[in-house]
Each structure stands twice: as structure tokens, then as C-alpha cells.
Amino acid sequence: MSSPTPNRHVVLGLWPIAGITTLGVTESDALQTIRCAIDAGITRFDTAFAYGYDGRSDRMLGDAIASRRDEFDVIGKVGQRWTSDHQRVLDGRPETLIADAETSLRRIGIEQFDTLMLHAPDPKVPIQISANAIAELTRRGLSRRIGVCNVDVEHYQRFRDAVGCDAVQCPLNMLQSDASASLIRQCEQDRCDVFTFWTLMKGLLAGKISREHTFADGDSRPGYAVFQGQQRENAHKVLDELAPLACKRGRTIAQLAIGWVLSQPGVTAALVGAHKPEQIAETAAATPLDEDLLSEVDSIVYRNT
């Protein structure tokens, strides 16, 4: 059996398999999802110390890649953790960042991250101090590269000026095309990698949530503005027009949505979440859009949002 073609454009984000905001996730499904991603050619995985109350995503990733660890790039994040009563808090103190990075590596069973990122700035700790702790871990050989997530341009620049910055994670999808525009432009100028999240906006841009869909109790998605009122209606207008275009071009709606993100200037790769094998099998096949298809998708998006 031949090996799959490596896919560097799509990164499997492991937050959904943590089972905190995504309901009904089993460890069996989580493990099979990661293995399916590997079979589909995905070589990059995004995890975090706080993905799961007990490090579930780290452990599942470690189990899935146990015999082939050297073949994959792992993006790790520290700076968020859970309290004993399951409240997520920011903690950018150097001693915490270093300890949590070491714990995450042990859970996964690897010696080095490809990229270690500050998960989010801690308002109680100057970002330069947190940045120096992340950089110290690279000097110790625990990560090859460093980066930061959930920042505006000002905080990115403070991090960059303190220790340099190899990669940033920020939100971007076709319903929120301006969400990180200025940050992405700055990263492009700095030749800093950009990994986008909310690429499918919590599954909405997969095209499988109907206008009439009622979310289960405990599902966090109704709290996001894009799932409410006119924004939700506008999203469905986009999806209604994307459906026949996707069919015509032999793609799914999700593949168009991911391809749109991958076609934006400055974007290195798109994070996509999944907690079932069939989900990642579909999204792993996404590729950047050609010029004509991008123009058609842009027309639909900008007409309806």
C-alpha cells in the first residue's frame, strides 16, 4: 500500500476531541480520527496543555503516533490551564509555562515540539516575560520554533520584539474575513507563518447545520454571534449558494470553505477540527482554490455578508 501524499496545508486541531465543548466524543472516535488524518496525509497536529481536563488530546495524539513520532510535526500551546472546579484560566508565569510544556511533551511521548506557542496573553504577566519563557524552552531543545496565539497586532509585536516569532494562530473564515486582516498583513511582512483557526466556524461552514437546527443543551455554539439572528441567516444564504458551486466543481462545501482560507495572502495552513474519522477524511482533501473558483466564491461571500 502506497503512502499518502503529505498534506501541509491542513492541520488537525485537537480541541474537539478533548470532549469539553464538543459533546459525545469517545476516546475510540478520537483515536480513529487522528489515525484517519494520518492515512489522509496530514502531518501536522495542533494540541495544547489545556485540551482536556486531564490532557486528553495530548494523550490521544501520543497513542495514535506512538510508532511513528518522527514523521509528524506537533504544535503545542501553553498558558491556559484548568482549575479544580473546571474553570479555564490564563497563566503566563514562566514557571508554569515551562512545567506545562514539559508535562505536555511527556503525555505525547515526544522530546520536542515543532512549534511551541503561548496560548494567549495573560493580562497579569507582561507578554515579553511569557515570550522569554517560551524562547528558553527552544534553547533547551524542547521546541524547534516559537509562536503566539489569540493576539492583536500590538501584542504580536511585543512578543516578536522580545524573542522573535515563527508562527501565529488567529481566526479566519469566509464569514469573518476581516477578523485578523491587519495581523495577517503584519505577519506576511515579517515572514511569520500564519495558522488559522475557526476555519469552518465551529462546523457551520461544513454545510451540515440546517436553518432549523436546534443545538443540544451544553453545546456552546449558540453563544457565538455567527449562530444568532441575521448573522446566522446570512451564513445560510452563503451556504445555499455554495452548495451548487461545490457540486459543479466536485468539492464539498467544507472543502470550498477551507480552500478559500488557504487562498488568502499570508496564510500558511488552516486548522480544522474533527472528532469523527469521516469528518477529517473530507476536510483533509481540501486544497487552495484556483483563481476562477476563488472569484466565484468571493462573489457569493461578499454579496451575502
UniProtKB/TrEMBL annotation:
- UniProt GO molecular function: oxidoreductase activity
Ordered alphabetically, the record's keywords are: Oxidoreductase
The record lists the organism as: Stieleria varia
Give a Pfam family name.
Aldo_ket_red
**Positions of the NADP-dependent oxidoreductase domain:** 10-300
List the InterPro entries.
AKR, AKR_Detox_Biosynth, NAD(P)_OxRdtase_dom_sf, NADP_OxRdtase_dom
Its protein name is General stress protein 69
Listed transmembrane segments: none
Q: What is its EC number?
A: 1.1.1.-
Q: Which GO terms describe its cellular component?
A: cytosol
